[in-house]
Amino acid sequence: MKVKFTWVLTLLAALTMQFSFAQERAVSGVVTDNSGMPLPGVSVLVKGTKTGTQTDFDGKYSIKALPSQTLIFSYIGMKTQEIVASSTTVNAKLKDDSVELEGVVVTALGIKKEEKKLGYAVSKVSADEITKSGEQNVLQALAGKAAGVQIIGSGGTPGASSKIIIRGTNTITGTSDPLIVVDGIPIDNTTTQTSAGDNPFNANLSGINNSNRALDINPDDIESVAILKGPAAAALYGARAGNGVIIYTTKKGKKGKGLGIDYNTSLGIDKVSQLPARQNKYVQGNYDKAGVPEYITNTPISWGPSAASLGLPTYDNPRNFFQEGITQTNNISIYGGDEKATFRASYGNVTQTGMIPETGLKRNTLRLVGDLKLSDNWKAGASMQYTHTTNTLAQNGSNASGVMLGLMRSPINYDLRSYKDEFGNNTNYFSGYDNPYFTVNENPATSDVNRVLGNIFLSYNHASWLSLTAKGGIDTYSDARKQIYAVSSNGDDLNGIGEVAFNSITNKDYYGDLIASGLLPMQSEWIKINYTAGLNLRSNQYLDVFSRGKGLSVPAVYNLGNATELYASNVEENTISRALFAQVDFDIKDQLFLSGTIRKEWASTYGDNVKSAIFPSGTASWIASNTFDWANFVKLSYGYGEVGIAPAAYRTVSVYTKPFMTDGFTNGLSFPYNGINGMALQGRLSNPDLKPERVLGHDLGLSTKFLNNRLAIDLNLYYKTSKDLLIDVPLPQSSGFAAQYQNAAELVNKGIELEIGYDIFKKSNPFQWNVNLNWAKNENKVTDISGGLPEISIESAFSSIGYYAVKGQPLGSFYGTKWKRDENGQKVIGSNGLAIVADEIGNLGTSAPKWTGGIRNTFSYKRVTLSALFDIRYGGEVYNGTLARLNNIGVSEASADRERTYVIEGVKEDGTPNTKEISAQQYFQKYLGDGGGAAEEAVETVNWVRLRDATISYDFNVKQFPLISAAQISLTGRNLWLNTNYKGVDPETSLTGAGSKINGLDYFNNPGSKSFIMSLRVSF
């Protein structure tokens, strides 16, 4: 009986234990990263079920599970880990997954996504690549680093603007600038030219090349860059994303023990990279009636006799004028944090002196950023940046005070260094030009910018299916500019009376988002659905006040009270927009990913009959390697999206303005006139039907990785149609208006992009060699212009050449005078031996390159790393007006070959070969020069291969220094080598700067630079 009772007790105990093991119970724990810091937002899933949760801000979780079940811990950027829930406490430590970390990108609205799941192309640029460039402008730092992204610099002077074009130009009259976003907040990147209200000309052609405002971002604060190139990627930004989006993510605080300190300093030396070649034999003068060269002063022409024949000394004025530019940078950051809060504070300083004397840039940047966990569900964060940028700029291009104009035209027998007489007045080889030394010393142009960028967010994490975030941002800056033309200066058509001009620009941008997001609870484990929805508000306030005083009574007193003639004008714009948006992402078995977005936007610049616009997108990507369980990674993707470009402000109403009349050469006449003021309706008729320009884009992509992810290939094809483009359509003068701003044109961009990355050796090899290649080709064509117009001027240029949108031709075609040719394409030569200029102007080509590419090689062995980026451009036209004028006045190197006659290749009007000899002066002035010849002769097709940057660095072994965690010294060269067929300055140049729609104009542009930079980085 006792034995039977014992057996019964044993059976009951066994049954009880079996029942308890089969019962679900709470399992909890903490999930940390490899360093032991808690990870919030980690997905915890009971394998084979729909039961799941996420870790809180402390990395803690709690979930119900059977002891026999397995918990799956997954987090973006970490290797997924599976642990059996055999205990009620299960802690997990997730390791970094280098492949996953490289695959995480920041997309629209600051949403982080795995790149492998995207249905569109995104190019990434790391902080290390930004640093290696040595550039102070974060846009210029992107040059050559991403397929389909073209950077156009405007000269090597401190603070010179940089224009960026992504996948071709999408608009005719609007800006081509992409939207710049910093930590989720769009910021201003305009390049504003100072222009008086009575200036009838294109202010971009002369004067100062001002900075684009992305210059105010400190490159050392950048953590990473994501470039959203197509409409499918950028659709959530609506009417601000027609030209793509560049997302800069800044460095944040880090959790760890104690404070971290990073310090770096660098010293750079800038030199002129390339100048037009000049002859050094013949002096100032011209031929007499007998054809004999004679020495003549006060002329810009150098067709005189040789210096040797007269015993005159010669001077290399360009070599004497330019100096070595010096750039000093210092950056320090302090960071730290724990599971409750993180912070980072940084200060950056740049002091730069230019290659052009008296030019320079100073920038001081202070940035604070922090995150604070208020509770298990609430989190807040904010950042603030203050930047003070001062700049002294040089007169540029088509301008009697232009530095390069007076310098490059100078005869070899005149020493420009004697630039003032005993009374302090301008002296020069020709009285119509300012001596370049006088310009830089007596005609300074300065800019003083104070800028504040700030954003704040508050988030509430209710559950995995609902997270709410409210964020707001402000971007405000003031730019105080001052331009001086000293008494005796020829600048600004003054005839030496002197001028002081002030320009005050104030811009304020306010931005706000309210966003809800989450993972929808599903009854099936093979599909995951994430959603994002919210609303956006934006307001912009812009004020430009210009004041000028001419006729200075007392020299060197630059105050409006010292002026005889006063003038003032101002421009004010206020715009506002609001939008609703939503995004839904489907993840089907980690193989097929579908995404759709929509944005409905209202804006004050839309017409009253339109009011709003809708911007949709849809993408799909299929990871074929997951479906078929291939060892290599293969993904196919397709995306379609629509984005826009908003109309200019106040075009929905007819406004009053001060009328003016000009002859095309002088500033003409305007009100007030003889003390009488006047206003009239502007020549542009209002349009209540205005709607945003629309860019509709298709993206098709193939992404692959082979050889254990050592070889990565990304191929993308795209086709974009830009519709409803805004242009000024001419109206009958009988209407009382000259034109109406209408949605009235269309163009197409199509292209191909290729990016390849290859690690030559396995990671285990002590010697590493990585190759990254990008290549892109874009074709652009204007397909329609309404109103029966064959072409329209994009922006006024010179009388002999313009920049046009022509139906059936690429956008931005140079249109100008051409040579008359026969049916075989040969030039027709007149009886005087000179080529005949055709009666009608024609297409001279487009400034856009046929293709671009970049190749970066990175070598590393132990503590030494060597990296070099080659930047390649093939094709595209540049108008070399500089060389045409130097040929005309006998200063070009080729014009030294003048003691013989020339025969222009071509046929006579009767079709026989030309044999008529002409003088060298006729040949260089009227054929190769701009003395009556065709602009066609000055248009050059440009190719280049340049060593964009090369860096060698050494990482010190700091183990014996307990206070130092890392130290590196590096030497960088920028633009050290340039192989080009272009005969002017560095062909990466733009007379009109980033604020202009014109590319490829070179008319005495300031030169580019090559730089040597030594840097030291230390971390504590």
TrEMBL record:
Membrane topology: Multi-pass membrane protein
Molecular-function GO terms, alphabetical: siderophore uptake transmembrane transporter activity
Alphabetized UniProt keyword annotations: Cell outer membrane, Membrane, Receptor, Signal, TonB box, Transmembrane, Transmembrane beta strand, Transport
Ranges where the TonB-dependent receptor plug domain occurs: 116-245
Keyword Zinc belongs to the record: no
Domain TonB-dependent receptor-like beta-barrel: from-to ranges: 413-976
Family annotation (SUPFAM superfamilies): Carboxypeptidase regulatory domain-like, Porins
GO biological process: siderophore transmembrane transport
Compartments in which it is found: Cell outer membrane
Coiled coil: none
InterPro entries: Beta-barrel_TonB, Beta-barrel_TonB_sf, CarboxyPept-like_regulatory, Plug_dom, Plug_dom_sf, TonB-dep_OMP_SusC/RagA, TonB-dep_OMP_SusC/RagA_CS, TonB-dep_rcpt-like
Protein name in UniProt: SusC/RagA family TonB-linked outer membrane protein
Residues making up the signal peptide according to the UniProt record: 1-22
Assigned protein family: Belongs to the TonB-dependent receptor family.
